[in-house]
Specification:
The complex is a heterodimer of chains A (about 120) and B (about 110). In chain A, about 0% of the residues lie in helices and about 55% in strands. Chain A has strands at about 5, 10, 20-25, 35-40, 45-50, 60, 70-75, 80-85, 90-100, 105-110, 115-120. Chain A has no helices and 11 strands. Chain A has about 120 residues and is an all-beta fold. In chain A, the strands form 2 sheets. In chain A, strands 2, 4, 5, 6, 9, 10 and 11 form a 7-stranded mixed sheet that branches. A 4-stranded antiparallel sheet of chain A has the order 1-3-8-7, with no helix packed on it. With about 110 residues, chain B is an all-beta fold. Helices cover about 0% and strands about 55% of the residues of chain B. The chains are: A mainly beta (about 120), B mainly beta (about 110). The interface between A and B is medium-sized, with 24 and 25 residues.
Chain lengths: ~120, ~110
């Protein structure tokens, strides 16, 4: 059974940093692209970042470029999101999701339960 | 940049009724490049449809997807009590993009 379990969320002041983790199990982690998707309270879904199987390619939504870094450790079956320079607008539930490719179409077939990040003074 | 517009914002229906949800892209997308997700309160999204019309593993056949170009539809043939939720469409072009969602609520 595919499982994705996020951790590391919490309350942080504006300008602060946080590192999210996602522990994956039930599949060969190193064979899949992985992603972070967030959802602000009461709002819709917003894609944050993608990372290739071997970590050689990374992509970000414009609003987090230069502040967030996605990474992975295939030996530990873990995905990470280092978030620096946090802003109130980054407040959201952050989901870890497994990515799939259909030709040139990227989508998400499994999601974790999410971890809440609150940026507030 | 492509914008995905979902309509209606809210759909009020009774169990057993048919639900038709729309997702419109501001520019034409490949006929296969669309997915649909279901999200219930307090839960993570769940993949329903990918490639515009392929059901994900374990998804009941009352859920179906169709469309191409700029207009896509998710149809729930007969609403079950567990189907009342928010539904999102998702497209991939230069990046991942989600629609704003349609809430299907009990009438």
């Amino acid at each position: 059974e595919v499982q994705l379990v996020e951790s590391g969320g919490g309350l942080v002041q504006p300008g602060g940093s946080l590192r999210l983790s996602c522990a994956a199990s039930g599949f060969t982690f190193s064979n899949y692209w992985m992603s972070w998707v967030r959802q602000a309270p009461g709002k819709g879904l917003e894609w944050v970042a993608n990372i290739k199987e071997d970590g050689s390619e990374k992509y970000y939504v414009d609003s987090v470029k230069g502040r967030f870094t996605i990474s992975r450790d295939n030996a530990k079956n873990s995905l990470y999101l280092q978030m620096n320079g946090l802003r109130a607008g980054d407040t959201a539930v952050y989901y870890c999701a497994r990515g799939r490719w259909l030709q040139y179409f990227y989508y998400f077939d499994y999601w974790g339960q999410g971890t809440l990040v609150t940026v507030s003074s | 940049e492509i914008v995905l517009t979902q309509s209606p914002g809210t759909l009020s229906l009774s169990p057993g009724e048919r639900a038709t949800l729309s997702c419109r892209a501001s520019q034409s997308v490949s006929s296969s490049y669309l997915a649909w997700y279901q999200q219930k309160p307090g839960q993570a999204p769940r993949l329903l449809i990918y490639g515009a019309s392929s059901r994900a593993t374990g998804i009941p056949d009352r859920f179906s997807g169709s469309g191409s170009g700029t207009d896509f539809t998710l149809t729930i043939s007969r609403l079950e009590p567990e189907d009342f939720a928010v539904y999102y469409c998702q497209q991939y072009g230069s990046s991942v993009l989600f629609g704003g969602g349609t809430k299907v609520e009990i009438k």
